Amino acid sequence: MSPETKTVIKEQVDAVWAATLKLPEKQRTVFLLRFVEDMDLLEIAAAMHVTEGSVKVHLFRALRTLRKLMESQK
Amino acid sequence: MSIHLSPDQISQFLIGEATLEARQHVRECIDCMEELTRLRATLGALHDSVWNWTADAGDALLPKGNFMAFIRRDVGTRIRSWAVAFALITLFAIPIYRNVHHRQLEAQAVEDSLLLEHVNAHLSRSVAAPIEPLMRLISDLPEEPGGGHK
């Protein structure tokens, strides 16, 4: 991987992380459990004592918010 | 599907909730495929970045290790905060309640004593209240030499 590619990836990760910190608590938790802990939706639902549908809603909102935040940071 | 996937459709894709129509579109549309690949790569990079986080990076930006531990710690902190808040409320509210209650008791005692005085005054009358003016008239009359009033 070239240094330029590494820099681009690092910037992307920084942007995602900065946007993640701005998410509401439940959205942030669901997002991190899904994309960092690699937990599936049912596992997340069990861990957070919510329904799978609720996890999907939070995850969907988290991704939508992240995309908006990342686009505004561009 | 002739137009590209909306941001919401792409988000649905990422959580595994894409429709058959959307899946079909991604197979045929290079732009949407690239967008999805780019997002997945970014999320993958975030994942790797967290898991490869070195010890000297510090806790300020990313919590190290297992996120469940991080979440449990977060929940534990919240429970402790509630406990402290409850203790503070108890510490301040109970003396205030006691003070108010004490004042209410004092006011009640004053009221009771006034009522008691009133009852005592009423009971100590020798005659009924409506007859009192007549009794005063009789007592004001000069006595006759042979006893009795005029």
What share of residues of chain B is helical? over 70%
Task: Summarize the amount of helix of chain A as a percent range.
Answer: over 70%
- End-to-end Cα distance of chain A: 23 Å
* Oligomeric state of this protein: heterodimer
Distance between termini of chain B?
Answer: 124 Å
The number of helical segments of chain A is 4
Order of helix and strand elements from N to C terminus of chain B: HHHHH
Q: Biggest sheet of chain B, open or closed, and with what strands and sense?
A: none
Number of strands of chain B: 0
3D architecture notes:
The complex is a heterodimer of chains A (74) and B (150). Chain A is mainly alpha-helical and 74 residues long. Chain A has 4 helices and no strands. The mean pLDDT of chain A is 86. Helices cover 81% and strands 0% of the residues of chain A. Chain A is elongated and about 40 Å long. Chain B is mostly helical and 150 residues long. Chain B is 70% helix and 0% strand. Chain B is built from 5 helices and no strands. Chain B has helices at residues 7-14, 20-28, 30-51, 67-123, 132-140. In chain B, helix 2 crosses helix 3. Chain B is rod-shaped and about 135 Å long. The model of chain B has no long low-confidence stretch (mean pLDDT 75). The interface between A and B is medium-sized, with 23 and 24 residues.
